[in-house]
Amino acid sequence: MIQKDTFEWTAAKEQAARLVAEGVLTEAQIGKAAGVLRCQVQRWKRNPAFAERVRFILAELGEVSRQRSIGRREVRMEAIQERWFMLRKAIAEREGDLATVDMAALLKAALDHEKQAAIESGQWTEKREVGGAAPMIRLVEVVRPAKPGEACTVERSPSAY
Fold first, then answer.
1. pLDDT tens string 60-113
2. Do residues 27 and 42 both lie within one domain?
3. DSSP letter string over 48-94?
4. Which of 36, 133, 149, 159 could bridge to 40 as Cys pair (CB 3.0-4.6 Å)?
5. pLDDT at position 3, please?
6. Is 154's pLDDT higher than 60?
């Protein structure tokens, strides 16, 4: 029997390639869905044309994900807005109890969300000093744990502040 060099695509192979790319099912489950045995799926996976199709589908799925989910700025902004409303509601419910750690955490989370929203909308800039004095140097001490029977060691190295 002469073996063909070309990989002829069928509906079963296409379905198997898509399922392999999704990465959810086992080879046996993919085989069952495509109407073939697990060993056939394994053979297909070793074929360069099949592997290339799986890579293409993965890229396609990644692009769809970027277009439809958190990869889109509008979706992220909407999620930030929803969480911000929930945080503001929780803060309002605890307004009389500003001394609690829970309230401090809520306020910090709200501020972090506001910062993230400003970053996402292009309204946030970091202020940096240009020129001026050289950066301050601080001494960093690192204590290295000792091996049994040895003393601890301390290393000192300068670090930009």
1. 877 766 666 665 677 777 888 888 888 888 878 777 665 665 777 777 887 787
2. yes
3. HHHHHHHHHHHHHHHHHHHHHSTTSHHHHHHHHHHHHHHHHHHHHHT
4. 36
5. 55
6. no
Range of the structural domain that residue 89 is part of: 73-120
For position 45, what pLDDT does the model report?
A: 94
In a domain, 151, yes or no: no
Q: Are 158 and 140 in contact (CB under 8 A)?
A: yes
- Report whether 34 contacts 15 (CB < 8 A): yes
Cα torsion 86, 90, 95, 96 to 10°: value is 170
User: In this structure, what token pair is assigned to residue 109?
Assistant: 């989370």
Contact present, 50 and 44 (Cβ < 8 Å): yes
Residues of the chain by 3-state class (helix, strand, coil), percent to 5: 55, 10, 35
pLDDT higher for 130 or 144?
Answer: 130
Phi, psi of 114 (to 5 degrees): -65, -40
Q: Give the contacts of 138 (CB within 8 A, at least 6 positions apart).
A: 158, 159, 161
Q: Do 58 and 85 sit in the same domain of this protein?
A: no
Q: Are residues 58 and 98 in the same domain?
A: no
Q: What total number of domains does the chain contain?
A: 2
